[in-house]
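During the first year of the project, the team set up a workflow for recording each protein of interest as an amino acid sequence followed immediately by a discrete structure-token representation. This format lets reviewers and collaborators read both layers of information side by side without switching files. As required by the reporting guidelines, we include two representative entries from the current panel. The first entry is reproduced here exactly as it appears in our internal archive.
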Amino acid sequence: MSQPFRSSVSYVSSIWADISLEYKEDHILLRSFEPLTVLSSALWGGGLSKATHFVNWKVPLTYRCEDPAQMTQNQLVAWGYPPESTIGLQTAAKLTHAAVTEEEGDRFRMICCATAGTSNGARAGKARRTFSAYQCGTINIFLLLDAHLTSAAMVNSIITATEAKAAALQDLGIIDEQGNIATGTTTDSVVFAVSQNIRYGAPHQFAGTATTIGNTVGRLVYQAVYEAIATQEEP
């Protein structure tokens, strides 16, 4: 596990040189040399898309905006990033405490970056006060893979990542406003980006916890989320 931005402003993957991460004071930029196929719940560029830039933008706790997507687009332009090939998330968590994990395995290379704050922890499945729209991610997970996956395996990977996030919160004892163990926060986002590199041959068809790729997704997400949460109160 690593928190590179507590002592540096840049990080280059040791296993995938095409991926770089930069800390820019009010955002983290993950950049890929080649476009990646992305499935995400992102505020900007969400759904199924192609992207080379991935932004985690820190907004203040007092942040209020009636059109956060438009605000994000405007900010991307101001930073000089191409909106059409950028995925944008927002967070109020400490960017300096972002945790990065990576691993090379069975026909894949994988990098995970997570930021996490849990002041609005919540447990899925419990009744609570709800809102018609509530944006601004609090636990933000970026998973970048050099691999070949079916569309179903991409969705399966997001399920596995979500289970791992919930497990990290459970092991840390994070609770919601009613005292229940939290499974996430009310505003989480996940970005899953894959190269679809055909040099790996036949695609991974599944990404559950019993598969080589799914097990790695789970472990890297768990480690990154756990570390990002556990150190949030540290300077």
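The second entry, processed by the same pipeline in the following quarter, appears below.
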Amino acid sequence: MTSPDHRIRIGWAGRWTISAAPDAVSGPHWTAIVNQNTPPELVAALTAALAQDWADGQDRFLVAPSPYWADSVAPLVAAGWERTGAELGTVELAAPDGNAGVYINRSRRELEDGTQLWAGPPGWGNRAEITFSPRTPSHLIAATAAAFTDPTPVARWRESLHPELAARAQLTPVVPPRPPVPTPRDLRPRLGVRPPVPVGSIPRWSTATTPSTTPSAALPARPAARR
């Protein structure tokens, strides 16, 4: 997919390739390569910041990176990531638990790898990697790095997690809530409306009758007895 002006391009071919150019026909000014193991939340953090830059209309997604390496990884430093041993001209930081890190190439600008964020144990099927070319704006790298420290829980299928990743994660089963217990008000429409029972009615088996309100007819007179 591309931005409406075709300067930002996002593609998937076994891995994500995200790039930005000064115009629709020029080559990429910078590129980010995201491998197949990278969680979608990390990719979304980068693309959301990139889309906001484009919407602002100031071409901030093409600015030169900061000369200070710490500006790109400020969220990681604030979260307690510490520097580890690195080669001359490079900077490396590691998360407190050792499960994630960042590599920054400061000297050899001709290399494609400028800054690489990684997470997970080594291995093609385990480790997530996002590699930014040297001219990537620092604020876009920082926006992606901030997602590495976001403590918000995310949903994952247990079957899709590699055993090595599952062993390093804090997994909490998600149990579907039980249906609520119906109240008498909920049950009333199901039972229907019963006809009212008449009060004071006479059972059918009774022989009693109700008194008449009209006078009885006169009985015929008996004939006189003969002597």
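For the second entry, the following points were noted during internal review. The first helix runs from residue 40 to 56. Strands lie at 8-12, 16-20, 30-34, 82-83, 90-94, 100-105, 115-119, 128-132. Both points are flagged for discussion at the upcoming steering committee meeting.
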